[in-house]
């Protein structure tokens, strides 16, 4: 598929997701969804399934508030089970798919001095993104909401003293590993740049499973700081490695999806895609 068509299909799916979210209480039919995005039912079914991994009807079932509330209840049971076994978190109950390490305060202070960063613009199942990495691992993955250059400039600001090299070919190959299903243990390494608390929150998220959805309070418990729900929200807002640090799995305790820095439609698509993989 060429790039313009790839981008156009993502936008159609984004519009379909937006329509489903606004009207899920009325349980719209495939015909109604297709009419809302000016596409035939057959074509929408195919394009939507390619992007989200499931049909529009199955997606509709996944995003109902009751489904989200049930997922939160299951997460609570998993947390309790892991604690009753004397484990530090749910990540100990299954193999890690992604490994990570936090930067030292000294490295953060140097702002990337002496670090060589390669980056590229890649097509993902959830729209275009800027992906960057060092010799130690992936350090940046941001979906492009508006202008490509804005996201690249943000990468430069995150690492003001680093040297940069554009490498779209290598970025494309790395992106295929990132969005492979399933991921292989230890195949992807992340370099985390944040405060000690932020790193703990991000590590707790990395250890969560695709089938989980977490409330802010549940994530605070997993990070070892019960009651720090507001600080958890700040940590999520400072996440610069989207998808791999899965802040899309964090929803409100009442089942509402809540905010997402790259758009609630994209958040819904990722959650449904993960659900389909499981």
TrEMBL record:
Q: What Pfam families does its record include?
A: DNA_binding_1, HTH_18
Q: Where is the HTH araC/xylS-type domain?
A: 14-111
EC number, UniProt record: 2.1.1.63
Q: What's this protein's family per the entry?
A: Belongs to the MGMT family.
**Gene Ontology terms, MF aspect:** DNA-binding transcription factor activity; methylated-DNA-[protein]-cysteine S-methyltransferase activity; sequence-specific DNA binding
Alphabetized, the UniProt keywords read: DNA damage, DNA repair, Methyltransferase, Transcription, Transcription regulation, Transferase
Q: Does the keyword Methyltransferase apply?
A: yes
| SUPFAM superfamilies xref list | Homeodomain-like (SSF46689), Methylated DNA-protein cysteine methyltransferase domain (SSF53155), Methylated DNA-protein cysteine methyltransferase, C-terminal domain (SSF46767)
Tell me which Gene Ontology terms the entry assigns under biological process. Answer: DNA repair; methylation
- Its name, as the record gives it, is methylated-DNA--[protein]-cysteine S-methyltransferase
Query: What Gene3D superfamilies does the record point to?
Result: Homeodomain-like (1.10.10.60), Methylated DNA-protein cysteine methyltransferase domain (3.30.160.70), Winged helix-like DNA-binding domain superfamily/Winged helix DNA-binding domain (1.10.10.10)
Q: Which reaction does it catalyse?
A: a 4-O-methyl-thymidine in DNA + L-cysteinyl-[protein] = a thymidine in DNA + S-methyl-L-cysteinyl-[protein]; a 6-O-methyl-2'-deoxyguanosine in DNA + L-cysteinyl-[protein] = S-methyl-L-cysteinyl-[protein] + a 2'-deoxyguanosine in DNA
> What InterPro entries does this protein map onto?
Homeodomain-like_sf, HTH_AraC, MethylDNA_cys_MeTrfase_AS, MethylDNA_cys_MeTrfase_DNA-bd, MethylDNA_cys_MeTrfase_DNAb, MGMT_N_sf, WH-like_DNA-bd_sf
Keyword presence, DNA damage = yes
């Amino acid at each position: 598929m060429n790039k313009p068509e790839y981008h156009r299909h993502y936008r159609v799916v984004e519009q379909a997701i937006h329509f489903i979210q606004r009207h899920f209480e009325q349980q719209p039919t495939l015909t109604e969804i297709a009419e809302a995005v000016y596409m035939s039912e057959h074509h929408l079914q195919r394009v939507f399934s390619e992007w989200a991994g499931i049909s529009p009807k199955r997606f509709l079932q996944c995003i109902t508030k009751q489904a989200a509330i049930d997922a939160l209840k299951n997460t609570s049971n998993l947390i309790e089970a892991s604690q009753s076994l004397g484990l530090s978190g749910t990540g100990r109950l299954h193999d890690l798919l992604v490994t990570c390490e936090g930067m030292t305060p000294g490295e953060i202070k140097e702002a990337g001095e002496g670090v060589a960063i390669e980056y590229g613009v890649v097509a993902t199942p959830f729209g275009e993104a800027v992906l960057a990495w060092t010799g130690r691992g992936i350090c940046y993955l941001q979906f492009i909401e508006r202008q490509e250059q804005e996201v690249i400039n943000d990468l430069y600001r995150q690492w003001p003293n680093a040297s940069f090299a554009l490498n779209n070919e290598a970025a494309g190959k790395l992106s295929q590993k990132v969005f492979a299903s399933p991921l292989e243990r230890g195949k992807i390494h992340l370099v985390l740049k944040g405060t000690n608390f932020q790193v703990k929150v991000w590590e707790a998220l990395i250890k969560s499973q695709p089938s989980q959805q977490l409330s802010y309070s549940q994530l605070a418990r997993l990070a070892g700081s019960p009651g720090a729900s507001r600080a958890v929200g700040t940590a999520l807002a400072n996440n610069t490695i989207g998808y791999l640090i899965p802040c899309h799995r964090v929803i409100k305790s009442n089942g509402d999806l809540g905010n997402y820095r790259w758009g609630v439609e994209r958040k819904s698509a990722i959650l449904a895609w993960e659900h389909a993989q499981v």
